[in-house]
Amino acid sequence: MFSKSKASPESVQTPAQRNNGNVRNNSGHTFSIIASDVEIVGNLNARVDLHIDGKIQGDVTCGNLVQGEGSVISGKVIAESARLSGSVEGSIEANDLVIESTARITGDVVYTNLTIAPGGQIEGKFRHKSSGGAPSIGRTTVDISKVADPLILGNASKVA
After folding, report:
1. What family name appears in the similarity comment (predicted)?
2. What is the 3-state secondary structure (H, E, C) of the chain?
3. What is the pTM of this model?
4. β partners of residue 92
5. Using one digit for the tens of pLDDT, what is the confidence trace for 50-83?
């Protein structure tokens, strides 16, 4: 008479499906969430993508990283792509890197593609991945002899 019919978990469609503690988004990629009340001491290596809102004291290695505004990472970050909104105290290496307006980065940055939103703060050196061991932009030197023909001053008959 007063019974309720409950849908079975298999029939409920949600934007993100849980799978072994991980979340699967609509595109089928699996990612893990480190909540704002979680603090990890030690290195974090993930085969899945990560969304970090908590605090990490150690290196973070993953495919794709999204960092929340209140998040703090004290260590190296290595990711295929990273969207940083919190604080990072350590070096960053990512092919596609987005520094949001709330991000505070202290460390060197190695990137392929870089976007910095107005207000994003970075204290460190930048190096494009294709440049190998080239010096950072702030310390670049140019050998002018390799850029242009030398300018010869002297007798007018010798000047071309």
Report:
1. Belongs to the bactofilin family.
2. CCCCCCCCCCCCCCCCEEECCEEECCCCCEEEEECCCCEEECCEECCCEEEECCEEECCEEEEEEEECCCCEEECCEEEEEEEECCEEECCEEEEEEEECCCCEEECCEEEEEEEECCCCEEECCEEEHHHCCCCCHHHCCCCHHHCCCCCCCCCHHHCC
3. 0.67
4. 77, 109
5. 999 999 999 999 999 999 999 999 999 999 999 9
pLDDT tens figures, 76-120: 999 999 999 999 999 999 999 999 999 999 999 999 999 999 999
The amino acid present at 47, given as its one-letter code, is R
Q: Tokens for 112, please give them.
A: 């392929």
